Amino acid sequence: xxxxxxxxxxxxxxxxxxxxxxxxxxxxxxxxxxxxxxxxxxxxxxxxxxxxxxxxxxxxxxxxxxxxxxxxxxx
Length: 75
Known about the structure:
Blueprint lengths: L2 H14 L3 H16 L4 H8 L9 H18 L1
Helix pairs in contact: 1-2, 1-4
């Protein structure tokens, strides 16, 4: 697992008083719901991401962290 993603997951788990496994389960459920959406605007967002299929939570965290970092440095 990506060290930074693992750190973020552990932080969320501690803040929410749940296990890391529970955080991963909930994150995957949210990813699944978004990925399986038929809403055209949601589909457009997923199509713009570099994933080949549905990402795991760790992959999604890494992608979002990179996207946020990129946006921060552009402004």
